[in-house]
Amino acid sequence: DVKVTQSSRYLVKRTGEKVFLECVQDMDHENMFWYRQDPGLGLRLIYFSYDVKMKEKGDIPEGYSVSREKKERFSLILESASTNQTSMYLCASSVGGLTTQYFGPGTRLLVL
Amino acid sequence: GIQVEQSPPDLILQEGANSTLRCNFSDSVNNLQWFHQNPWGQLINLFYIPSGTKQNGRLSATTVATERYSLLYISSSQTTDSGVYFCAVAPANSKLTFGKGITLSVRP
Questions:
Q1: Quick count: other Cβ atoms within 10 Å of Cβ B54?
Q2: pLDDT tens, position by position, A14-58
Q3: Which of A42, A58, A88 is the closest to B41 by Cβ?
Q4: Chain A within 8 Å of B101 (Cβ-Cβ)?
Q5: Maximum Cα–Cα distance across chain A
Q6: B41 interaction partners in chain A (CB closer than 8 Å)
Q7: B23, B71 Cβ separation under 8 angstroms
Q8: What are the chain A neighbours of B100 within 8 Å (beta carbons)?
Q9: What is the pLDDT of residues B8-25, one digit of tens each?
Q10: Which of B21, B27, B26, B5 is nearest to B98 (CA)?
């Protein structure tokens, strides 16, 4: 059965903190994605990766970085958290470009 | 970039009713997916359907690629169908672009 897990369901951080969100998939998928979801805006792509150590910017990469050292793990990093990064963060993976994406349960991040 | 419009934005149904959710897109696509997000935030893929028709139980979907739209049909709706339905599309070898979603509430 397909499984994508995220390190936390809920997270509260203070402005200026460094924040790590981790995503792990057990399906040997090449592609992994980080989205953020905000009311009225749908899902917007932050970064994606199509292979280990490879990354591509999505639509809204500013203020974020990513790391993919192992195929199964894709980390999203907020170098200095700000209140406008309060959001729901969703990780997804897929076996290729034109295939189904599988999502993790999401992390609700609150930055105070 | 490609534009995705979903309609209606909100839908309220009585349990047992049928519904049709629409997704219009502005350019040719090689990838189209429908997702359901439950009230706890989990997104589940319903269909991968860049063209044609598929059915899975009470749900079915049709994409008419030449006319740039897709329809998701829900028959005999249940309260567990409540949530947000997203359509996401991508042109060839490109990332998915999501619509803003349709919020469905099914009342008992």
A1: 14
A2: 999 999 999 999 999 999 999 999 988 889 999 999 999 999 999
A3: A88
A4: yes
A5: 38
A6: 88, 90, 105-106, 108
A7: yes
A8: 40-42
A9: 999 999 999 999 999 999
A10: B5
